[in-house]
Amino acid sequence: MNRDDPSAVYYPVSDLRITGGSGVLIRDSDGREFIDCASATFNLSLGYGHPAVINAMKEQADRLVHATSSFQTDVINRLSARLVSLAPKRLTKAHLKVSGGSTANEGAIKMAQHATGKRDVITLFRSHVGQTMAMAALSGNAFRKKSLPLVGIGGLQVPDPYCLRCFYGQQRDSCGLMCVDRLADFLEYASSGSVAAVLVEPISGNGGNVVPPDGYFAKLRELCDTFGIKLILDEIQTGIGRTGRMFAAEHFGVEPDAMTLGKGLGGSGAQVAGILASDELSGLPANDHSFTYGANLMSAAAALATLDVIDDPGFLANVRATGALILERLNALRPSLRCVADVRGVGLMIGVEIVDGEGRPSSELTNFLAHRAMDFGLVIRTSRYGQGNVLKIRPPLILTIDEAHLICDRFEALLRTHGH
Ligand SMILES: Cc1ncc(COP(=O)(O)O)c(C=O)c1O
Question: How far is the C-alpha of 366 from the C-alpha of 378, rounded, in Å?
């Protein structure tokens, strides 16, 4: 067997072989370069090989790679304090002993269950909150569940605030936020009567870049308080500057009971995730949620370096400016390109909704465009693991204005060639 070929890799992989990357670019083995509009797995907030992150990891590697998380270390103490200082004020504790976003979400749920003595979790239609068995069971996509004999946890999926395709057929100016109001009916008639938490992304990452309308989170917070349910914000995609604020919660003015982080926290790819929790959610026994490679010291050093870069008003202003530019330029395409049904997003979390000639959502055309994007020097991923109709544009946050224009030039050329 050729030691370089992928025949021993369990899962199918693309023919494309990546050999390097720097900034917003990745390179393949044929020397082609692409702007990575997916920031790898939406996690390279600072792009490929950011020097501050790489140096922090090297320095920490020289000092200490691993110590069991039951001892304290300077770097974990510092990262915990830093995250709490940046977070919405109700969140006073950081739990970093998780192995990724999925186990961060599971930990936040356990905390809510422990605090309330209740069991079930509400998630939204189309939502993706991870791929452990429990998180797959809470997915808002049936295709996530159908191939696995899941050990389900009590979960309930409810309509998302997707105004363009409102589940209730309403218009935003007159709906009275039925998508929150009707949750009381779900609790009464469809739940087990024992609901511990609502787990929701501020803007759906995988579900189609759905941005909730004004007032959604205020009303959801109110409903949670009325029914004694804990509100967990999954900021695994939206957090750490992605929306032009440190956390998307700031855009919506919402105070959650817990928030989960992952992906972008590692800056240039360090494996780090965590849970931020309120006092009320403290007290989950240490051994009830603890993973060997959680609270990893090299990753925590990378996270601190990442926060140093992102927690800067100038840096976040650039995320808002480049994001606004992309939104404006892509929106300007709509009158001449019927395949573009909607362009929406906040900061550098942007989605372009693709429809067929009859105006129907088309995952086929969406996947085709994502595939052809490579010919135009762009890596673009689609919503709902290829089952959705949204092209996701989420480049690294270090994007310059010139690079933002380049993405738009290439994207327009792609749609004019292969769209309609
Ligand atoms: C919103 C959201 N939550 C949770 C997860 C799961 O994170 P991880 O893959 O690190 O387990 C993801 C991953 O795609 C995600 O997008």
Answer: 14
- Where do runs of H (alpha helix) occur along 332-400? 363-372
Pocket test residue of 39, 99, 102 for ligand 1, highest count of atoms within 8 A of CB: 102
Tell me whether strands 378-379 and 33-36 are parallel, antiparallel or unpaired. parallel
**Contact call for residues 122 and 137 (beta carbons, < 8 A):** no
Distance CA 284, CA 229 (A): 17
pLDDT for 202-251, tens place per residue?
999 999 999 999 999 999 999 999 999 999 999 999 999 999 999 999 99
Least Cα distance to 38 among 339, 263, 327 occurs for 263
Cβ of 408: how many Cβ atoms within 10 Å?
19
Question: To test the ligand 1 pocket, which listed residue (39, 44, 201, 263) has its Cβ within 8 A of the most ligand atoms?
Answer: 263
Q: What is the CA(324)–ligand 1 centre distance, in A?
A: 25
Domains of the chain plus CATH, in order, are 6-49+312-418 (3.90.1150.10), 52-310 (3.40.640.10)
Structural contact between residues 246 and 240, judged by C-beta atoms closer than 8 angstroms: yes
Residue pointed to by tokens 């609270």? 295
Q: Which is nearest to 207 in space by CA: 125, 137, 147, 132?
A: 125
Q: What is the side-by-side order of every strand in the sheet holding 349-354? A: 340-346, 349-354, 390-393, 381-382
For ligand 1, atom 10, the nearest C-alpha belongs to 101
pLDDT digits (tens, 9 = 90+) for 293-307: 999 999 999 999 999
